[in-house]
Each structure stands twice: as C-alpha cells, then as structure tokens.
Design a protein that fits this description.
Chain lengths: 608, 397
C-alpha cells in the first residue's frame, strides 16, 4: 500500500497555503490555464473533424467538386480553426487587453477570407482574365466555390474561436483571483465585487453544442452513404462511408469528451480557489492522465463490442414506427370522413360552380430609351473596387500582425514618403486655396459682400440711419481704393477728404486737357491753354475747390467740382458725427446723404 | 446531466434506423463513460476507509493535533476528494478545515489539522464530510459522518497561591477531639490488647518486651472531605462582565478541586446550580471521592457547565443541598458575591459542624464589610485575584 506519511501531507498542505498566501498584494492571472497547449489543440482537432465530415457530405451532394479542392478546404478549415484558437488564446493574455477589440478579429477574418479566395482560385485552376477583374469585379470575387469555401472556413473559425473563448472564460479571472486572495473578499467592504462566472452553465452549453454537432455529423455521414451496410461482424468496414469520415466523427466525440473533462477541471478548480480550499498539485497533474486513460480505455473496450446485426433491430423499430403512423393516419381519415359527412348534411345542395375567371391581362411593356454610352472607361469601377479591397486587406494585415513581432516600420516610412510627395505635388494648389480663403475672410472682415448690387441695395436699405451713413462712407472709401486713392493708415477722415477731392480735381483737369487736344486735332487748329480758376485753400473741416493749374476749367466743371467737394465734405462730416461723436442721424437726412453718395460714386466711376 | 441520456437514445435510434453500425461505437463510448463514471464514483466512496485521530481531552490553552486518515481500498483512484471537517469557532486554529486531495488506488492519504483550545467547553468535532465526483461532471457523490465526536476542553487550573487563596488552611487535615478516626502514620503509644482489636495494630516489639499483647495507639486525626459549591446563577453576577466572572469562577473551582485531590489527597465533591448542556438541566451533584479519575470527572463537568438563570438565590438554594453533608466536611463556596442572607446560611452550616470558606470571584464593593461579618459568624471570606492580574503576574515572571 502506497502510504503518504503525515509529514509529507502536512508539508503539501503548507505548500498549498503558502502558494495562496504568496503574492497577495499583486493581481495575478490564471497563467497555467491561459497558456495551456492541450486545450487549443483539442479544439482545433474537433474543428478539423467537423470540416472533414462536412466536406465529405458536400462532395457527395455536389459531385462536380474536384478532389484537390476538398483537400485544400480541409487544410484551410483546420488552419482557420488553429488560427482562431491561437488568436483567441493570444488575445486573452493580460498584456493584450488593449488589443482585445472587434477590429482585430475583423482583420483576422478578412485575412482568412483573402487567403481562402486566393487558394480557391489556385485550387480550381480558373483564374479570371484581367478584363474580367476590372469590368466584373463582384463576379470574379464571389463565385460558388468561394462561397462554399467561406462557409467551411467560417464554420471552423467560428467554432474554434467561440469554444476557445468559452474555455478561457472557465479559467479564473483576475477579479476573482483578487477577491480570493483578500481575506474579506466576499464582505461588503469591497466596493466592486467580482463578476463571478457561471462556469457550470458554460460547460453545459459546450456539452449541448458538442452533442448536437456530433449528431449532425452522424446525419451528414449518413447522407454520404451510397449503399446498404453489410451485416457482418466487421460491419464497420462495410458501411460504404469513407473511413476518413468515420474516423473524423469518432475523433470528434473522443476529443469532445477530453474537452469536457478539461472543463470540469476548470469548474472544480475555480470553485476551490474561490472558496480558498487548498488543493494538492497532484490533482491537476493527474487529471489529464486519468481522463485520457479512461477515454481510451473505454474506447478500446467499445471496440470489442459487437457492431453487426442491426438489421433486425432496424426492422423492429421501423415496424413500430410504421404501425404508429398507420394508426394515426387511420384515425385522421375517420375524423375527416366524419367532418365531411356532417358538412354535407348542413350544406344541403351542392354549391353552384362559379364560372372560371378570365386570365389576367399581360402587364404593359415600357421600352426603355436607348442609353448613351458612358464616357467613363468600363474598367474604372473594377479598378476602384480592387483598390479599396486591397486597402482594406492591407489595413487588416497591419492590424493583425502589428504587435506580433512586426512593427511595420518600413511601411510607415513608405507611407510618410508618399505623404511628402503628395504634399509636394499639391502644395501650390493648397497655397492657392489658402490664399483664396484668406482673401474671402478679409473681404468679410472689411464688410465687403460677396453678393451683387441688388444684394447690397436690399441689404443697406434694411439698415438704420446711422448704419446707412456708415455704409455710404465706407463704400465710398472702398470705391476710392479701387480707383487708386486709398485712405492711408493713420489718416483721419477729415484729412482724407481734401486729398480725395484734390485727386478727383486733378483727374478732371487731365481729362479736359485730353479732350481739348483731341478737339484741336480734329479741327486742325492749335489751341491755347487757359490758366485760371482759384487756388484751393484748405482749413480743417473745410474744403474748397483748388484752382486749375495746367488748363482752363469751364464754369460747369467748376460747379461740378464744388458739388463734389460739398458732397465729400458732408458725407465725411456725417460719418464723423456718427462714428466718433456718437450722434445719431435723422432719418429725413438719409435721402439727402444718399444723393451725395450717388454723386461721389458717379465721380469715382468716371475716374476709372 | 448534460442531456447525455437523451443523446444516447438519439444515437441508438440513428444507428438502428440508418443501419450504421459504427454509430454504435459512439454510443458505446459515450454511454460507457457515462455509466462507468456513475459506477466509479459511487463505488469509490464506499471503498474508502475513514479514520479520525484526535485527542478528545485537553486543557484550555493547549493545541490539539488531529488528522483524518483516508485509505482507498480500491484499485481505482479517486481523482479528487473534498474533505471538510466541521470545527466550532472557539477551536479554530487555521483558516479553514477543508482540503482537496487526490487518492490513488490502494493508497492512503492524511489530512492533518490543529485545534486551538482557547476556552473550556464541550465541543462537537464533525460531522466530517467527503465529496467527490467523476472526471466529466456527470455525477457527484458525498458522504457525511453520522455522529460527531466531542472534545472536552477542561478549564485552566492554577495553583492556589497564584489565585491569592490560602493553600494550607482550611483545606488541610483537621485535628479532632473525637477519636473516631485515627491516623496510622502517627503513633501515639501502646496499650493492652483487648478482644476486637485488629491484629495489624499489634505492636510486636512492645509485646515482646512486656510479654503481654500490646496494640498501637494512634493520634486521633480526621481527613474530612471537601465539597466545592459553585454558584452559576446568572442573576448573582453583575450584568457587565457576567461571562468573564462566571468563567473565572469555574477556573477557581477547578483549581480548588485540583489542589485538594492532587496536593492534599483528600476527597472532593461538587455542587453547582449551573446548566449541564449534555443533560439539558441543572447538573447533578458529584459526591466526594478522591483519586485522579474522580478529579477528571469533576473537571469534565466543569468543562461543560454553563451559567444559568435560576430563581432561588444562593441563600435559598444551598440549604437543601447541604442536608446530606457529612459532619466536619469543608464547604468551599465559589460565588460572585456574598450578601448577609448568604452569610447567615453559611453560618448555619458552620454551626452544624462544617468548615466554611467562601471565595468571591466578582467585584463586590461590600466585600470588606462582609469579610468582617463573616469572621464573626465563622465564615472565612477570600477574594481571588482576577484573571488579568494573573496574566500580568505570569508576564512579569
């Protein structure tokens, strides 16, 4: 008898206590469970078995599927299951918590789809021509073989990922471990109690899926049979079902049992840890050995059981079912007969047959007008489609492989280079655009409207008298600036007004001289220039017409200049009153000022 | 569990209807594991020999080592076995008394634990519970001990000097003027033999010298028995600190009884109005006897006795208990306080020939007055030191 002495037991117990007491201050993770290799391997094997059985059924149902395609699909299914297991386990690691989002799973799945697409093209041996890629992108991308492949790969990947996730949930979570390490983990002094997982129900869900999936696989295998089974002791070899399929289903059941055993260990282990029950390390060490030993032992014993001779049993069961069916059918017939008899008694005469309705009129046809050929090249859409698809796949590659030892430094450098080239190429355009935006902003600041004259009229008439006065003066300034007589900085309106008037006068004189010379040329006689007029004097706030210096000015022109000087002077004074003196303008003076403004505008227009 | 049974039925139906013999293999495997798990778990617990090793008697302050020994008589291992020992709160010495072990086939494993006996009492240990299950979660099984064992934790025993009580008087031998009892160790002289004298008392040397049969004369002496009266009437104790004072009274009574038996080798008995939880009523008096076995029975009663709320006071309850008291016996009354009525009751016992000593174990502001009055009435009153003073003295060495 293998006896364990007391000292050894006490030492083991104290070791367990010490292990629980150790590192109480820091949060720990269930690393032995997270880093276990056996469990993902079993899940991948299960998924591979499912794929094998499913593909065998599909081959049987669709006889045109080539053998190479099915072989590759088996490989892809197992590979995607492995990727699902590994990715899920990798993402469950504590240091990967920031990557644990749906984006990386979508990227992973997109990559699997891309690989499946390429593999399907290569396996089938039909690669669409380039023009088909560009003109019919969807048809080239999605074909029946690809849909089938995607279905198989999706099934394997989703099964592996979800099952791995379930088993990872059955492990001890960080908050549970933290609570278990606290002496008063369950008391109310913990403000955030851990979110305990019902591992029993998680395991129950897996068992239900395993059983349902197993039965489905058996039914699929039954669908692949082409003939009757033989009735002999070694009937298992005479099922007319591919031995690979049978082996896959048997392995599916055995690995499922091994996974259930692992799940039960997780349930017990979590319960013991959360209840702070010390457990010997030998339990965890011996568990897989016991489980696998039992499974293979029972499997071996089951292999010794008789398999043949199901024919009579099937006959008995079929007879029972047929009898039940016949009995129910007879009862239904009797009831239906009774109902029809009662109905005929109540209805009396037979109903008059209704005339048959005429067939419906055919729908009117509308001929579509002939469409003009598009100016867009036919390959543009396909090119855009493949470009977007390539971008998506590239981004998926970046998401999936970043953090797995690849930092894509060269890709980032290339992207920076592209950005620089782009900026260089379109720099001038951007500068022009920026300058345009700045000019627009300046115009808005200076009160210039982007609308036309009507817009201005509509707008300034809605202003109050003071604002209208400001408008008259500022637009005058603007027009003077356009005419080349801008108001200088630090020049007051009263200083600016005589300068503007002098400039206008000079312009009038120059124009008169030009017209006089032109007349003389036309008449063929020389002209004598007259100098006259009054020299202008200027006082602050008063503007007088200056004398002509180079040519004679007529009386009419002199009167016009006087009017202009008066108009500029009065507009300026009105503006100064409103702007600087804070005095308001009477509404009845606005039309008069408007008339002045019109005169100055007219003069400035002539200046151009 | 897990709908395994229904799945098996479906598999059998598919195998039969579709005539796929290999599906029977699946049914055999799944069903075989399911059946084997049930059989294994149920059989394994019945083939485990469980033995608890525990010292069932201890003094307060001691630590008791216990262990549960599990012997798997089967060849099949037990993948996991959850052991849960039920231990009262006052005996807890470790965080919990649970453990999960794996017992291989034909092997033995031990679950050790310790109990810290901080307080006197009569504690149930157990029932021991065992739980196990299969490797797949198909079935669980459990076993529970039908009857717990009891651990008796005796009260602490101190030397009387430490308690501040006289160790020689009044519990020593008393000289008696009535020569009813003679002390054979103390020879007083010889006398002539008279018929009826015991031959063992013949002094042969004196007979040879006098040539007449001479028998030994012994000094008259009497070793009178001692009866300890323990007052555990809850109403007699102060409301605050009743538990501590009553526990201290039990400790003082146990120390007196131990002193009388082990040091003075006299007979001792116990009368108390406390509740014996084992009997569910007021404890029966223990008549005076000597010997270590008798002392242990007294300590056993003192281990489990509980303070009890009774109607009569000490003055009303004690006289009927003293009706059968031997003449000349010593009465040691351990009580929280002594009032005037109690003094007169004890005085009556004194007048009937008993030696009366009262040990007060709770704070009493009238103690000096009662002590002086007791001296006049033939009742010696002592006040013991308190437990905390005792611990301080022990700490000081």
């Amino acid at each position: 008898m293998d006896a364990i002495d007391i000292n050894a037991a006490q030492a083991a117990s104290s070791e367990v206590d010490a292990a629980i007491e150790a590192d109480e201050s820091k949060v720990q993770f269930d690393q032995p469970w997270l880093t276990s290799i056996l469990r993902p391997m079993l899940i991948a094997v299960m998924a591979g078995c499912m794929v094998v059985a499913l593909i065998a059924f599909l081959r049987h149902a669709f006889s045109g599927i080539p053998i190479a395609y099915t072989g590759v699909m088996v490989f892809l299914g197992i590979a995607s299951a492995l990727i699902g297991c590994i990715s899920t386990t990798w993402l469950a690691q504590p240091e990967q918590r920031m990557r644990r989002n749906s984006g990386i799973r979508a990227a992973e799945f997109a990559l699997i789809l891309a690989i499946t697409r390429v593999t399907t093209w290569l396996t089938i041996g039909y690669l669409p021509p380039l023009d088909a890629f560009l003109t019919r992108p969807m048809e080239t991308l999605i074909d029946p073989a690809y849909i089938l492949s995607v279905a198989i790969v999706m099934l394997a990947w989703f099964f592996a990922a979800s099952t791995t996730s379930d088993f990872l949930r059955m492990g001890l979570q960080a908050d549970e471990l933290y609570a278990a390490r606290q002496r008063t983990g369950r008391s109310t002094d913990d403000p955030v109690p851990p979110n305990y997982i019902d591992r029993r129900s998680v395991l129950g869900g897996f068992v239900t899926r395993w059983l349902a999936g197993g039965i489905l696989l058996v039914l699929l295998a039954a669908g692949t049979r082409v003939g009757q089974a033989g009735n002999s002791f070694f009937a298992i070899t005479q099922q007319n079902i591919s031995p690979a399929v049978i082996s896959a289903i048997i392995i599916y059941y055995l690995t499922g049992l091994a996974l259930i055993s692992q799940g039960q260990l997780a349930v017990l282990r979590a319960r013991w840890t959360l209840e702070r029950v010390p457990s010997r390390a030998s339990i965890l060490r011996n568990w897989p050995m016991y489980a696998l030993g039992l499974i293979f032992g029972i499997g071996f014993l089951a292999g010794m059981m008789p398999f043949g001779g199901t024919f009579y049993l099937a006959t008995v069961i079929s007879t029972v079912l047929r009898t039940i069916y016949m009995a129910m059918l007879t009862i239904m017939q009797i009831f239906m007969g009774l109902l029809m008899w009662l109905g005929s008694l109540l209805a009396g005469d037979e109903p008059i047959a209704q005339p048959e309705a005429p067939p419906p009129a055919p729908p009117p046809r509308f001929d579509l007008p002939p469409t003009e050929p598009s100016q867009v090249p036919p390959w543009l859409g396909g090119m855009l489609f493949w470009g977007v698809l390539a971008l998506i796949l590239g981004y998926a590659l970046y998401i999936y492989f970043s953090g797995r030892g690849l930092n894509f430094a060269w890709l980032r450098k290339f992207w920076a280079l592209l950005q620089a080239r782009w900026a260089e190429m379109f720099g001038s355009y951007q500068e022009w655009q920026a300058a345009r935006v700045r000019a627009r902003a300046n115009r808005q600041i200076n009160g210039e409207s982007g609308q036309g004259l009507l817009g201005n009229l509509l707008r300034w008439r809605n202003l109050n008298p003071d604002q209208q006065v400001r408008y008259f003066y500022l637009t005058t300034l603007q027009r003077a600036e356009k005419a080349g007589i801008p108001r200088r900085s630090a020049e007051t309106p009263l200083q600016y007004a005589p300068r503007l008037l002098e400039q206008l006068r000079q312009h009038v004189i120059a124009r008169e001289e030009d017209e006089g010379e032109q007349k003389e040329v036309d008449k063929g006689s020389p002209t004598t220039s007259q100098q006259g007029g009054r020299s202008g004097t200027r006082r602050d706030g008063e503007i007088l017409p200056s004398s002509a210096t180079t040519s004679e000015v007529s009386d009419e022109e002199l009167a016009a200049q006087l009017e202009n000087a008066q108009a500029v002077q009065e507009l300026t004074e009105a503006f100064v009153r409103v702007r600087y003196a804070g005095q308001s303008t009477q509404p009845d003076t606005v039309p008069y000022l408007k008339g002045l403004w019109d005169k100055v505008k007219k003069q400035l227009r002539r200046w151009r | 569990m897990f709908n395994i049974f229904w799945a098996l039925l479906v598999l059998f139906a598919i195998a039969a209807l579709f005539r796929m013999d290999w599906v029977y293999y699946l049914a055999y495997v799944v069903g075989g594991i399911w059946l084997f798990s049930h059989w294994w778990v149920r059989r394994s617990l019945s083939h485990v020999e469980i033995q608890r090793e525990l010292n069932l008697f201890a003094f307060a302050g001691e630590t008791v080592d216990g262990k549960v020994q599990l012997n798997n008589l089967s060849w099949l291992p037990l993948p996991w076995l959850h052991i849960q020992e039920t231990v009262p709160f006052d005996l807890l010495d470790q965080q919990n008394y649970r453990s999960v072990v794996s017992v291989p086939g034909k092997a033995q494993t031990v679950y050790p634990y310790t109990l810290r006996c901080s307080k006197r009492g009569y504690y149930p240990i157990g029932p021991l519970r065992l739980n196990t299950g299969d490797l797949f979660g198909f079935v669980d099984a459990g076993w529970q001990e039908t009857r717990p064992v009891h651990l008796t934790v005796y009260p602490r025993v101190f030397a009387l000097e430490k308690l501040g009580l006289p160790s020689r008087s009044p519990f020593g031998s008393q000289a008696s003027r009535q020569r009813l009892y003679e002390d054979p160790t103390r020879l007083a002289g010889v006398r002539d033999y008279t018929p009826g004298d015991s031959l063992r008392n013949i002094h042969w040397k004196a007979t040879a010298r006098e040539d007449v049969l001479q028998v030994k004369k012994f000094q008259p002496a009497i070793a009178l028995n001692v009866t300890v009266v323990l007052d555990l009437n809850k109403n007699a104790y102060p409301i605050s600190g009743a538990v501590g004072s009553s526990e201290w009274a039990v400790t003082v009574a146990a120390s007196v009884a131990s002193h009388i038996v082990t040091i003075q080798r006299q007979q001792v008995g116990l009368i108390t109005n406390g509740l014996d939880p084992l009997a569910g009523r007021i404890a029966n008096p223990i008549p005076a006897r000597n010997g270590r076995g008798h002392l242990m029975s007294i300590l056993g009663l003192l281990a489990r006795i509980q303070m009890h709320e009774v109607e009569p006071t000490l003055a009303d309850w004690l006289p009927p208990q003293l009706a059968n008291l031997d003449w000349g016996s010593t009465l040691v009354v351990v009580t929280p306080n002594v009032d005037e009525r109690a003094l007169w009751t004890l005085h009556n016992a004194y007048r009937r020939g008993s030696n009366i000593v009262a040990l007060v174990c709770a704070p009493d502001p009238n103690f000096k007055q009662m002590q002086a009055q007791g001296e006049r009435l033939g009742v010696q009153l002592y006040r013991s030191v308190w437990e905390k003073d005792l611990h301080e003295m022990a700490a000081q060495g």
